[in-house]
Amino acid sequence: MSASVGKVLLAVKGLTAAVGGRNVLKGIDLTVRAGEVHAIMGPNGSGKSTFSKVLAGHPVYEVTGGEALFDGVDLLALTPEARARAGFFLGFQYPVEVPGVANAQFLRLAYNTVRGGRGKDELDPLEFDDFVREKMKLLEMDPAFLDRSVNEGFSGGEKKRNEILQMALLEPRLALLDETDSGLDIDALRIVAGGVNHLRSADNAVVLVTHYQRLLNYIVPDFVHVMDGGRIVLTGGKELALELEARGYDWVEEAARSKAARAA
Amino acid sequence: MNDVGHPFLRGLLARRSPLTPTTPTAPTAPSVSWLLALRAEALERGSTLAVPTTRDEDWRFTDLVPLTRTGFGPVTAAPSLGADALAPFHIPEAGARLVFVDGCFSAPLSVIAAQGGGLFAGSLAAAFHTHDELLHTHLTRLADFRDDAFMAVNTAHLHDGALIVAEAGHAVPQPVHVLHISTLADVAIHPRLLVVAYRDSDLTVIEDHVSLHHGACLSNAVSEIAVAAGARVRHIKLQRAGKAAFHVATTTTHVERDARYHAVGIALGARLSRENLHVVQAGTGTDCQLDGLALIGGRQIADTHSFVDHALPDGTSCQLHKCIAAGAAHAVFNGRVLVREGAQRTNSAQQCRSLLLSGKAHIDAKPQLEIFADDVKCSHGAAIGQLEADEVFYLRTRGLDEVAARNILTYAFAAEIVGRIPVRSVVERLRAEVLQQTGAREIA
Predict the structure, then answer these.
(1) What is the DSSP string of B14-68?
(2) What is the DSSP annotation of A179-202?
(3) Which of A87, A231, B12, B172 lies deepest, with the highest CB count within 10 Å?
(4) Cβ contact (<8 Å) for A99 and B416?
(5) Quick check: B368 and B336 in contact, CB under 8 A?
(6) Measured between alpha carbons, how far is A230 from A234 in angstroms, rounded to an integer?
(7) What is the distance in angstroms between the Cα of A107 and the nearest Cα belonging to chain B?
(8) Is there a contact between B320 and B288 (Cβ–Cβ < 8 Å)?
(9) How far is CA B123 from the centre of its chain?
């Protein structure tokens, strides 16, 4: 989409990972540059969510090979919290409920921790309140969500808005949004997508992990990757998403199999 | 029962308070022959029953030897406390407050609700003059002491306690706070609470056990709660005894037709605590909710035995009990649900969720479902474990380090139950206490 080529934010090469002795990522290559939007699509169980969690540092997965450089830094050597402080953000498919902890308290804690990690000043509760209310307008969120417990009793759409609110607060350089569109009705989808678009800049990048093309009508990708069996088997432009929508995933799997057969 | 005449029980029964009320307002000693007879019977039972051992199914997980090895004297004179001693336990929402210092009713510290406004809240000793008939009807009606050594000892000592009565159709707007303050070590006290909620009344009672010392003492409490047809009672029990204290308590509740009972029990204190909760469905269409939390560490033992008895059709019961055990603590949950023949369309759900915070902590959870009706919906589940890896991961991706993430989630695990208490200031104070115990300073 952009004529000028941004600097490389994420460079993943030959990434493999296992869980419980089972290989789940089988060699992933992905380069994401500043200013770009990537979509990772694929059928259920293709490894999309696993890839997201491995990049964010979920301890259940063991990285068995390859590398992932984030702005030149070895992402895989960092703890999950250090990745967050470095500007890597994962929006969860199933955000966790934290009863008894007010959303405002949690958001401020996350904000200040990440800010502190970047050597910036922290905000006191009053300053933060003004700041977060501005960001909430972007997502048409009721300020009442500040007083409620984190994600507790939130609808699916409210949880996803709360995820994008966290993205807005933490100002990541790379945001990986895992199935952010699942469980959203059309209005919520429009609002969430609008929020993400608003947060995009020439200096950051967004990777959307999604099963459906729907979200990509609102956040238009520069690249669409299709995962299958723990690999990226096909990469194309935004028109690839439309083709997948029309033809399903079977032909991609078929094509990948015949390609693998030819290689062997 | 070969342990007849157990020396520990004999010791507890040796010196009992006389029946004459010590309240200065009492004009004469009441003529309560029925009470004398009751005490005599309880004394006889207490002198013949045995102290339960781990060979008794109901006490399998909790060894009382540390208790029976300790000697406790009676309270001869309770110290008088100034109002400032109450400040840390003050509940601003409460309308009436009944304060007991080492088991003795303190009129100066209490705010009673006299007859007239739809609520009576006062001392039992005074009520023997004014509510003789009510007491005769209700005292020991629900809490059968004949087969329980602790209840028998409590009843043998029966001379005072808290009485709370909500008149028919009356919604009591403010909670009633029953505060037991322990100031003396090496003594045994026998708190007694009777709650009578008449038809269609609405009442919230906070039963609160606190301590001003760190010595060993025994609190042996019995509470009886009668919830008449259509009434709603919320009963919050806070056990914040000292870390060397023993706390043994039985609460028996009868819930009549279309009535609702909601209990929240929080156990934070005591070296050894045992809560017996016995809820009997005494009418159709009742609704019971039991929420419990034991948050313990060190070498504490917290044992909750609940028994929900669905005796009639269309009853609902919903129970969530949580244990958090750190250090070398030991939590026990035994949740018995009985659905009797004829208790059709019973809907019962029980859950026990426990967190072990150290390798030496230990939890025994035993659901016990007995169903004799064929058209029922019953579920139960017990989960013991550590924090979910996904939950810790979520917080870490937001920049929090692992220790902070774990502390916050442990706090949240407890806060879910605390948040079910319908009294705001109690929720806030408990959250602060839980924060301290879970080390989640980040969100303080």
Answers:
(1) HS---SS---TT--S----HHHHHHHHHHHHHHHHSPPP-TTSGGGTT---HHHH
(2) STTTT--HHHHHHHHHHHHHH--T
(3) B12
(4) yes
(5) yes
(6) 12
(7) 9
(8) no
(9) 18
Domain ranges of chain A: 8-95+173-263
Percent of chain A with pLDDT over 70: 98
B14 touches chain A (CB under 8 A): no
**pLDDT greater than 80 at residue A101:** yes
Q: Which residues of B199-211 are buried (b: 16+ CB within 10 A; e: fewer)?
A: bbbbbbbbbbbbb
The answer to whether A160 and A192 have CB atoms below 8 angstroms apart is yes
CA distance linking residue A187 with residue B259, whole number of Å? 43
CB B64 within 8 A of CB B150: no
Q: Which of A19, A58, A70 to mutate to test the interface with B (most CBs of B within 10 A)?
A: A58
Are the beta carbons of B408 and A98 separated by less than 8 Å?
yes
B401 to A99: CB separation less than 8 angstroms, yes or no: no
Model confidence at B341: pLDDT above 50: yes
Angstroms from A173 CA to nearest CA on chain B: 14
Over residues A191-219, the pLDDT tens digits come to 999 999 999 999 999 999 998 889 999 99
C-alpha B381: how far from its chain's center?
23
Backbone angles phi, psi at B184, to 5 degrees: -110, 140
Structural tokens at position B435: 């924060």
**A84 chain-B contacts, CB cut-off 8 A:** 396-399
**Contacts within 8 Å (CB) and 24+ apart, B55-61:** B58/B305, B58/B334, B61/B303, B61/B330, B61/B332, B61/B334, B61/B364
CA distance A87 to chain B (A): 10
Model confidence at A69, in pLDDT bands (50, 70, 90)? Answer: very high
What's chain B's average pLDDT? Answer: 92
Q: Contacts for A182-185 with beta carbons within 8 Å, 24 or more apart?
A: A182/A93, A182/A156, A182/A211, A183/A156, A183/A157, A184/A156, A184/A157, A184/A160, A185/A157
DSSP assignment of B83-116 equals: GGGGGGG--TT-SEEEEEETTEE-TTT-B-B-TT
**B160 three-state secondary structure:** coil
pLDDT digits (tens, 9 = 90+) for A231-253: 999 999 999 999 988 888 888 87
Question: Which DSSP helix (H) or strand (E) runs through B141?
Answer: none
Is the pLDDT assigned to residue B291 strictly greater than 60? yes
CA-to-CA distance for B417 and B265, rounded, in angstroms? 9
CATH class of this structure's domain A8-95+173-263: alpha beta
The alpha carbons of chain B give a radius of gyration, in whole angstroms, of 21
Residues paired with residue B413 on neighbouring β-strands, in sequence order: none
Enumerate the domain spans of chain B.
Answer: 7-283, 387-444
**Distance, CA of B131 to CA of A104 (rounded, Å):** 51
Taking CB atoms within 8 Å and a gap of at least 24, the contacts of A217-220 are: A218/A189, A218/A190, A218/A193, A218/A194, A219/A37, A219/A193, A220/A1, A220/A37
Q: Which positions ≥6 away from B103 have C-beta within 8 Å?
A: B75, B78, B160, B180, B189, B190, B191
Alpha carbon of A88: minimum distance to chain B alpha carbons (Å) = 8
> What is the complex's ipTM, to 2 decimals?
0.95
